[in-house]
Amino acid sequence: MDILDIQNLHVGFRINDTFYDAVDGVSFTLKNNEILAIVGESGCGKSTLATAIIGLHHEQNARVTGKILFGERNLLECSEEEMNHIRGAEIAMIFQDPLSALNPLMRIGDQIEEALTYHTDYSRDEREEKVLQLLKQVGISKPEQVARQFPHQLSGGMRQRVMIAIAISCKPKIIIADEPTTALDVTIQAQILDLLKELQNETEAGIILITHDLGVVAEMADRVMVMYAGEIIEEAPVQKLFASPKHPYTRLLFNSMPQLHSTNERLNAIEGIVPSLTHLPRTGCRFASRIPWIPKDAHEEQPIFHEISKGHFVKCTCWKYFNFQHESSINR
Amino acid sequence: MSFMQIIDLKVHYPIRGGFFNSIVDWVYAVDGIDMEFEQGKTYGLVGESGCGKSTTGKAIIGLEKITSGKILFEGEDVTKERKSRTSHFHREVQMIFQDSHSSLNPRKRIADILAEPIRNFLNLTPREERKKIDELLAIVGMPGDSKEKFPHEFSGGQKQRINIARALATNPKLIIADEPVSALDLSVQAQVLNFMKDVQKEFGLTYLFISHDLGVVKHMCDYIFIMYKGRFVECGTKQDIYQNPKHLYTKRLLNSIPATTPLGREKRKWARQEFEKMYEKHIHKAFDENGRVYDLIPISDTHYVSASSVKEVV
Description:
Pfam family, one (chain B): oligo_HPY
Distance between the termini of chain B: 31 Å
Strand order of the largest sheet of chain A: 6-7-8-3-9-10-12-11
Family (chain B): Belongs to the ABC transporter superfamily.
CATH topology of chain B: Rossmann fold
CATH superfamily of chain B: P-loop containing nucleotide triphosphate hydrolases
Order of helices and strands of chain A: EEEHEEHEHHHHHEHEHEEHHEEH
Oligomer: heterodimer
CATH superfamily of the largest domain in chain A: P-loop containing nucleotide triphosphate hydrolases
Strand content of chain B: 25-35%
Radius of gyration of chain B: 21 Å
Structural class of chain A: alpha/beta
CATH architecture of chain B: 3-Layer(aba) Sandwich
CATH class of chain B: Alpha Beta
InterPro entries (chain B): AAA+_ATPase, ABC_transp_ATP-bind, ABC_transporter-like_ATP-bd, ABC_transporter-like_CS, Oligopep_ABC_C, P-loop_NTPase
Shape of chain B: globular
Number of strands of chain B: 12
Number of helices of chain A: 12
Radius of gyration of chain A: 21 Å
Domain ABC transporter (chain B): 4-254
Order of helices and strands of chain B: EEEHEEHEHHHEHEHEEHHHEE
Strand content of chain A: 15-25%
Number of domains of chain B: 1
CATH topology of the largest domain in chain A: Rossmann fold
CATH architecture of the largest domain in chain A: 3-Layer(aba) Sandwich
CATH class of the largest domain in chain A: Alpha Beta
Shape of chain A: globular
GO molecular function, one term (chain B): ATP binding
Number of helices of chain B: 10
């Protein structure tokens, strides 16, 4: 069942009185009990997309157009008051840096209770009980003690657990996790990811997992979307994407990972840099400038999505002609 | 032959409190480590956050007071000397930091940033200095017109290259790289790592590569130190550590590297949780009665493991 349906979403930021689209025509759906991963480099628009869904952009500086259908409602047409009831209760978000997302002057227990006070009609005792239950649920062994502590007294992993407890407190239908493990150690990362997955099994929420770490994607996702320069350039079920990535960007990205079992002296880097927002090419294949050895006519003039097998979509036609640079130099 | 030795390095921080702000306790950030550096090699220093790996790097270069221990550079004791700004030691040992942006002065142009170590150490005429800056920019593959620009005009990867150029200005022997690529994207990370390898070959540099990313460390390093609670729990060549890990903590670190394929992830998750239970049960054996990690014991020419006795190492 689709719980979120995004159609042709544009998010533009004002720079010197002109709006530049950081998210440029993105459409996708999210089912319940599904983990949808959005992968991309910094500046590709993945976090902007997430904050647009829960309506965190200010009207003056950002222009959001398109449709975000959540059930019957279009979130872009909701009033601020309606959004306040949706945010936290039906759509929750977990941020990358738990220390700056938590209030440093409030005790952990009060911060979790805040969401319950606002969104539910539990009595005070019920809320307190619920706080302890939530802390236990996210794997904190001494909930009574932690509820009385302040954020700075907890380790990074514990803080992220508290963030997750706040996110799940009102049983949301959608959880948006923006780089939930980037600030954590590898040993803690696995624990937090396992926890998210277990909680999802209980609540059947849909999770949008935003990350730049392909390892996290491999462990968690059901479906993956790869973003580049504000656009989705490839979408596929996770097994398909890892077994046979198609778009040049996806293939180059996989290729640039340091492989544990390879003995290659050099890593394969992607030439060039992600173009900045004001210099984005708005027509044609946006990745063309970083694969200059691919002939120009391999790209479409107006790239569209092609379904190359069931559930596997690729933008532009350049993938058919793509080979890695070192291969192409051999052919010549 | 090693050109630099670190002997029993300790960095302890006092915790103050109570009456008259007296010292109530100590944090043993680095608690007795030995290292040796040979020319042209890359040494990895791995551990989770808070284990003291950055403190070690800073203590070596003199940004952190050391409580006890010695640093020998080419046979000379430089433990005291490393604090003075003009010391010869600082020409030979340079550092690259994790955050490429905050380690560049935002109000200085690139030319001035690169000129700083040159002016401090190399007595050049203005013309020679300009030539040197051009050379440095050419080494790191930046266009010549970047001299006149400010740090904010560059991307993260480019800024990290400028940091490397600055570190190279005095032709050092050792560069301490504290998480040089963890703030960078995957594709840029590859560019910077390749580039670090290239300059290493060209100048015969030694790196002390501080990182928590075991994939990157495997790619870059010849010899690896695993750090846990301020002490080394295992050190050895890349092969020793990755193919034949002995200490429980090393195994845990290796075990937590995310796989790069979604196949079999349910099985991996189960294995991971079983391992975690085992780890919880047995990790107390890694400490002696004072709560310190045991001293290192050699088990081969290159491979050292922390244990109470050789018998304990299975």
